[in-house]
């Protein structure tokens, strides 16, 4: 009989060991695979000397694995101070809670300095000298973004604090999130109230200062109910101050997250505007009075001339006197129009010409049915410096047409147009279809008193005159 001398159960234990070793190898291979493929730098140090590193750590530092293994970790730090700081901080944390993490900087092989987040844990919590595993995450871009954000925030805060307006920012629930110094000064709200962040408490303090607190409160509630609404208002205080109030939603990528209120102290501006309105009102009254008195004085002169004409027997002298009265009337009409106008600096010339025609047709006893007339000067307005000489020119040219263009009750037409040109220039045309001017007539040469006056007035306007005699008379003046 054959006797099996193997220990009982030894085959089973051998099989178990094989399975355990296989599982261990598989686990180790899996960890190795993770170690190699991890997107963060991983390694092991013993007494701060590299014993193992993965490819990502090599990429992060710029060194090969061979260049790192068995080398001091000091080689990847930009300074001795940084190296010592990380050692003290990391091992202090490990001693306190078993792991350590610190933000630090590495110097890349090419000299660049990068920001990293370094986390460490001992292989054996009871014996750190056996080695420490570490993970390294490149946070350079994040740090740059954070620094850029901090610079932006700093700039915005500096801008906010330097602006002359008072700024208040609240969230959608009405909680105070931000305010600048000018807001605090302008509203004289105690810091203790603002620091609570409770908008209702600040609002209650504000309402006591306003002339119409209910109106202000009503508009505030409306805006809180319409998160996208923008608003402008003027606030009057009991103590005489005046604020402009602007409000608009605070948007984050198009979504409302709060509301921004800005307040501008316009007290001095309002006072200055009131003084200016008063001064302008007084000036307007004075100018109206001046135009009124000038018109009256001119009419007195005209009346004296009319009275004098009763004692003149010479027909030629009487005619000259009547023409002088018409010239005076044209000037008086300018001041009358200015006195009646809303704008004391300019007059409506279309209406002025129409009244001039009515007056002259009556003086020379010309019926509108015999000499038809047309005026085209819509929207033409002249200042007094050009209105008076231009009015006198029109008076002379209409007078000349009525006296000489249509003899022996001849019928005809008189057309007056006035155009606005570029550069604040104008073109005046007086045209009739009467007899026309004598052959060889030259307006530049000394002739009748009327044309001498017209030439002098055109020069006063820095203008040019053109006379056309085909089928009547057409006089064009540009000034």
Q: Which features characterize this protein?
A:
479 residues, alpha+beta, Beta-Lactamase, five-stranded antiparallel sheet, 14 helices, 17 strands, 48% helix
Specify the helix fraction band: 40-55%
Count of the separate structural domains: 4
General form: elongated
Residues in β-strands, percent: 15-25%
Q: pLDDT average, as an integer?
A: 82
- Intertermini distance: 147 Å
Outline the low-pLDDT stretches. none
Number of strands: 17
The neighbouring-strand order within the major sheet is 2-1-5-4-3
CATH A-level architecture of the largest domain: 2-Layer Sandwich
CATH topology of the largest domain: Heat Shock Protein 90
Structural class by sheet pairing and helices: alpha+beta
| CATH homolog superfamily of the largest domain | Histidine kinase-like ATPase, C-terminal domain
What's the short story on this structure?
This protein has 479 residues and is of the alpha+beta class. The chain is built from 14 helices and 17 strands. Helix content is 48%, strand content 24%.
């Amino acid at each position: 009989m054959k006797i099996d001398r193997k220990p009982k159960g030894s085959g089973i234990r051998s099989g178990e060991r094989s399975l355990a070793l296989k599982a261990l190898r598989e686990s180790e291979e899996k960890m190795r695979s993770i170690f190699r493929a991890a997107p963060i730098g991983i390694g092991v140090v013993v007494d701060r000397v590299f014993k193992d590193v993965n490819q990502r750590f090599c990429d992060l530092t710029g060194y090969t694995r061979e260049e790192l293994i068995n080398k001091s970790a000091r080689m990847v730090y930009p300074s001795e101070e940084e190296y010592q700081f990380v050692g003290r901080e990391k091992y202090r944390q490990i001693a306190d809670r078993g792991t350590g993490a610190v933000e630090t900087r590495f110097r890349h092989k090419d000299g660049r300095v990068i920001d990293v987040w370094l986390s460490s844990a001992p292989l054996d919590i009871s014996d750190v000298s056996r080695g420490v595993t570490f993970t390294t995450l490149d946070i350079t871009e994040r740090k740059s973004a954070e620094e850029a954000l901090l610079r932006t925030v700093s700039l915005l805060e500096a801008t906010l604090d330097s602006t002359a307006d008072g700024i208040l920012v609240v969230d959608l629930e009405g909680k105070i999130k931000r305010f600048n110094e000018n807001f605090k000064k302008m509203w004289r709200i105690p810091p203790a109230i603002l620091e609570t962040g409770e908008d209702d408490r600040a609002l209650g303090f504000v309402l006591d200062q306003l002339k119409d607190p209910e109106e202000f409160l009503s508009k505030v509630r409306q805006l809180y109910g319409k998160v996208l609404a923008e608003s402008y208002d003027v606030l009057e205080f009991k103590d005489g101050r005046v604020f402009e109030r602007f409000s608009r939603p605070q948007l984050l990528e198009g979504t409302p997250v709060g509301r921004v209120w800005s307040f501008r102290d316009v007290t001095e501006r309002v006072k200055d505007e009131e003084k200016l309105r008063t001064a302008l009102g007084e000036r307007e009254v004075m100018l109206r009075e001046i135009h009124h008195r000038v018109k009256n004085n001119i009419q007195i002169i005209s009346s004296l001339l009319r009275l004098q004409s009763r004692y003149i027997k010479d027909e030629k002298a009487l005619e000259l006197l009547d023409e002088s009265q018409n010239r005076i009337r044209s000037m008086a009409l300018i001041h009358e129009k200015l006195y009646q106008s809303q704008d004391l600096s300019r007059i409506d010339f279309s209406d002025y010409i129409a009244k001039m025609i009515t007056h002259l047709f009556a003086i020379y006893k010309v019926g509108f049915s015999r000499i038809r007339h047309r005026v085209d000067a819509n929207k033409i307005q002249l200042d007094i410096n050009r209105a008076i000489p231009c009015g006198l020119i029109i008076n002379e040219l209409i007078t000349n047409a009525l006296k000489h263009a249509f003899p022996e009750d001849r019928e005809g037409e008189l057309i007056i147009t006035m155009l606005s040109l570029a550069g604040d220039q104008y073109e005046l045309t007086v045209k009739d279809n009467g007899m026309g001017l004598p052959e060889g007539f030259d307006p530049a040469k000394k002739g009748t008193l009327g044309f001498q006056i017209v030439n002098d007035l055109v020069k006063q306007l820095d203008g040019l005159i053109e006379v056309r005699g085909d089928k009547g008379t057409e006089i064009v003046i540009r000034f």
